[in-house]
Design brief:
The structure is a homodimer.
Chain A (H helix, E strand, L loop, with lengths): L9 H12 L4 E2 H8 L7 H13 L3 E4 L4 E4 L11 E6 L5 E3 L3 H8 L8 E12 L1 H5 L1
Parallel strand pairs in A: 4-6
Antiparallel strand pairs in A: 1-3, 2-3, 4-5
Helix pairs in contact in A: 1-3, 2-3
Chain B binds a DNA duplex through helix 1 and helix 3.
DNA sequence: TTATTATTGTTATAATATAACATTTTATAA
DNA sequence: TTATAAAATGTTATATTATAACAATAATAA
């Protein structure tokens, strides 16, 4: 499958690669300190890259943590809608990849008759590991 | 129905009343400037009240906006789980009150076998009004 | 080419949130 | 009721997250 990385600008690529390799959500200033050796010096350079990457659906923001993760859905259609599990104990975060959920939420009307363009859903709970202990 | 307000401390009550009367989500520092006449002088006093109010389910935080609204669900059971519509045009925000959705999400297991304690869901789209224009 | 758009670089500053410590009030139980 | 624990308050300082404003450069399209 064709990667979109080639379409990314220099800063966008640097930031995205860092996020993609990380196995946890990264915060903006943590990203900054990790890309300074690559020539990115200011917060705004990071935030601009982050905003663009979110716009094109390559990353998502975990709103409750102010942190950023690479999208793990190959389907670009749902790239702007996102859902995550957040373990309250170990802080592990994983993207939910459930097409039924996606369909259900994307077409959700509720009481308000709103047309849903995107949504963000964050589940908090205990992951399997943390329940056992 | 018995109000819980009586259980609130002085600062909690001041902050809650302001949020409840507002017809839009309020930001912490906006709250601060509005309660200074009531003797609350520092950000931390506001944040402490906000945290407590969230804990007991009287308010919710709109994570994507860093803003706070009074809970409009009378059911205390679901007070920690919250779902909102956010109109991308007029910024109007309303709480979703849909028991099917609540049940569906509260019992959602997905791929991860997580036990869901709470969730936060934010729908973005166009409200009825803004679609017409 | 030339105009337009996206991206970059940079400094300063705004907006959001917590740490740390001292004190006071309220609730609980001995 | 009195001691003691728990919750709430007050205060100063500071950490963290994010954007404004302006100048320059690179990429793309007309």
């Amino acid at each position: 499958m064709k990667q979109k990385n080639e379409l990314l600008s220099k800063n966008q690529q640097v930031v995205f690669e860092l996020i993609e390799k990380a196995n946890e959500p990264l915060k903006a200033y943590s990203i900054l300190s990790n890309v300074q050796k690559k020539g990115i010096k200011a917060p705004l350079q990071v935030y601009r890259a982050l905003n663009k990457l979110m716009e094109i659906g390559k990353i998502h923001k975990i709103e409750s943590k102010n942190a950023f993760v690479a999208c793990t859905n190959n389907s670009c259609k749902i790239s702007k809608a996102s859902a995550f599990y957040i373990c309250e104990t170990c802080e592990d975060i994983s993207e939910v990849n459930d097409s039924k959920l996606t369909k259900y939420l994307s077409s959700f009307k509720g009481n308000n008759d709103m047309k849903v363009n995107k949504y963000n859903l964050e589940f908090f709970g205990l992951c399997k590991n943390c329940r056992v202990r």
